[in-house]
Amino acid sequence: MKSQKKAYLFAMAAIACWSTIGSAFKISLRYLEPVELLFFSSMVACLALFLILLAQGKLSLLKKLSAREVMMSAFLGLLNPFLYYLVLLKAYDLLKAQEAGTLNYIWPLFLVLLSIPMLKQKISSGSIVAILISFAGIVIISTHPDRVYHPVRVMDPDRVVGVALAVGSAVFWALYWIFNIKDRREEVSKLFLNFCFGFLYTLAAVLLTGSFSLPHWQGLTGSVYIGLFEMGITFVLWLYALKFSATTARVSNLIYLSPFISLVIIHFTVGEPILISTLVGLVFIVGGIIMQQYLRR
Q: Does this model's pTM top 0.85?
């Protein structure tokens, strides 16, 4: 099989997994608090990544880490998985799955904005227009102007907090990737150590808040699924897609299929009707991101 075909297969497998995660989050949160769900999911992710490292013969890389690299993983693990997923899961707890998931896709725009002060990158007037288009999508999803007969109460405290958390999770994800760019270590071993620290932070949060309880089997099943197909295996599938692809662009743009597929899966598994404003807002968000990427190239 040609390398590019392998790249597309790995990419589509990763996208298929990621497209189910919004539903998995929402269903699992019926049985677990956000911090509990993160605790079990990150534990499963650590185990999965350890087994992948073992299968790849890369466990020896962990022995060669310097104190500085361990401290970097301690910092990256604080951003992701701890802060990113804790904030995102709380957003899913407060909002519809289609809202929280779609708003989270704004992270590439925050990556651009944060790169200006942190990486000293310049921004063009066209990029500013692209960012405004994507932020218009946030406004559309947050206010649902199409719901004339059942208007959303924009000032409802839970909605305001939920929208802020969903957008805030995108900021944490963008920050994670900016610092990750500067870290040249092997990806899977680095991710494993990041998740180990993230798990320790989550364990501390569970102990401090006293929110730990034995989960229902549905919650535990959801945690295992999320740990494997959101945090662990799927990331490795995406790395292989990038590795086999002739260019990053050939597979990277496929990721924008995921939020549209996710809306359909959420509709049939969670039972949420797909709102026109969610779909329109998603088009604005993705359109602005693709425009931004085109302008940068």
A: yes
Domains held by the chain: number: 1
Please provide the DSSP assignment of the chain as one string: --HHHHHHHHHHHHHHHHHTHHHHHHHHTTTS-HHHHHHHHHHHHHHHHHHHHHHHT-GGGGGG--HHHHHHHHHHHIIIIIIHHHHHHHHHHHS-HHHHHHHHTTHHHHHHHHHHHHS-----HHHHHHHHHHHHHHHHHHH-TT-SSS---TT-HHHHHHHHHHHHHHHHHHHHHHHHHT--S-HHHHHHHHHHHHHHHHHHHHHHHT---PPPHHHHHHHHHHHHHTTTHHHHHHHHHHHHSSSHHHHHGGGGGHHHHHHHHHHHHT-----HHHHHHHHHHHHHHHHHHHHH-
What is the residue range of 209's domain?
3-296
pLDDT digits 0-9 by tens, 96-143: 999 999 999 888 888 888 888 887 877 778 888 888 888 888 888 887
